[in-house]
Amino acid sequence: MSATKPSISSEETRIMDREKQSVVQSYGRYPLVVDHGKGCQVCDLNGRSYLDFVSGIGVNALGHGHPRILKVMQEQMEKLIHCSNLYYHRYQGPLAERLAAISGLQRAFFANSGTEAVEGALKIAKGYGRKKSPGKHGIVALSGSFSGRTLGSLAVTGQAKYREPFEPLMPGVTFVEVNDPYGLEAAVDENTAAIILEPILGEGGLVEVERRFAQRAADLARQNDALLIFDEIQCGLGRTGKYFGFQWWDEEDVSGGPILPDIAVVAKPLAAGLPLAAILTNDKASEVITPGMHGTTFGGGALACRVALEFLDVLEELLPHIRQMGDYFRQRLDGLVEKYDFVKEIRGRGLMVGLNLAVPGKSVVPQAQENGLLINCTADTVLRFLPPYIVEKQHIDELVAGLDKIFTQGPPQQQ
């Protein structure tokens, strides 16, 4: 782990300048040109290696260049990449069956991205409500949540900084505080079409929804004939050590039975780096969509679906490892909480981990990069770590040692 700030080569400068001139400047990028990766590491154009604890914001869950993924990608690209949803191919059905089996739901609609999956889920909710009553179109969402960048998903994102520049958005959305059952009860009524929540708020600071709150949401949805939607785009598909974040609630209390949604949306790691998302539904929700009511050009292509099936095979083997590494990661981070008074607490589950600081943490991110570590900061004060599921103890040790080195300089300075 280098202690000196890496210099930027003329080639890297040329690439960054060219992008600034030609690409819409919607991202606040860090000065790093990623050239290639292997396992938990990526390298820049100069061959400098970085430990990747961002993993494409959870997309590269099997790391970079996983041999099993590369093998099926090469095989399938030589046979069929895309044929459109006007026809069948051999992988959509098996993938839908697999996702149904691990989720407890019945059907899947395949899309391209998380935000598109949320849009589809909201569309189902609106259609379901309209069948019941013309006035049944309200959506209840959580403050601090993040569900995407398109207008519908943005409307149910509980962070004003993302919504306000594009208002007015979809009407009828009510936000309630996380884990406030009384606020939830006040917001849900007979005109509510759906309640949407993330079991763990990824962009909202890795705040966990408590079982009692989730149970109350499920009860209210049932009592008011509304759909319950779980946004598992960041916490789903193994990130927490279970297939879905909502499955942890069964560990806490099984007396009331499992808490199942009517709809769950997944995306990020599903096709191990290729764009693929899914809307998982029970039969009640899926009946809203009939031929011609919803569609997508690219969603559920042959290549992405075959890779997703291989990803799920690998994931099944990795789930115990994810839980073990998650426990070890928390143990190592505990040392930082004890050592530094500005490090408040550890959040998250499995390999969805956050370190909440008493001060803004954004300045830690470039410092970490200078030391060969890729991390990010969310909700202003939470350093977020989303390492690949193949991470090992030595990688965690390197990350914690790097943070320790940075923290010895004192509390992060606000930028």
Can you count the helices? 14
What is the name of the CATH superfamily of the domain at 70-315? Type I PLP-dependent aspartate aminotransferase-like (Major domain)
**Overall morphology:** globular
| Total E-strand runs | 17
Q: Biggest β-sheet, characterized?
A: 7 strands, mixed
Span between N and C termini? Answer: 24 Å
CATH topology of the domain at 70-315: Aspartate Aminotransferase, domain 2
The amount of beta strand, in percent, is 15-25%
Query: Given this structure, which CATH class of the domain at 70-315 is correct?
Result: Alpha Beta
- Kindly state the percentage of residues in helix: 25-40%
Mean pLDDT: 95
Task: Output the structural class.
Answer: alpha/beta
3D architecture notes:
The strands form 4 sheets. A 7-stranded mixed sheet has the order 4-12-11-10-7-5-6, sandwiched between helices. Strands 1-2-3-15 form a 4-stranded mixed sheet. The chain has 14 helices and 17 strands. 45% of the residues are buried. A hairpin with a 4-residue loop joins strand 2 and strand 3 (49-52). It has a domain at 70-315: Aspartate Aminotransferase, domain 2 (3-Layer(aba) Sandwich), CATH 3.40.640.10. The two termini are 24 Å apart. The longest helix is centred in the last third of the chain and has 38 residues, at 302-339. The protein is an alpha/beta fold. Helix content is 38%, strand content 18%.
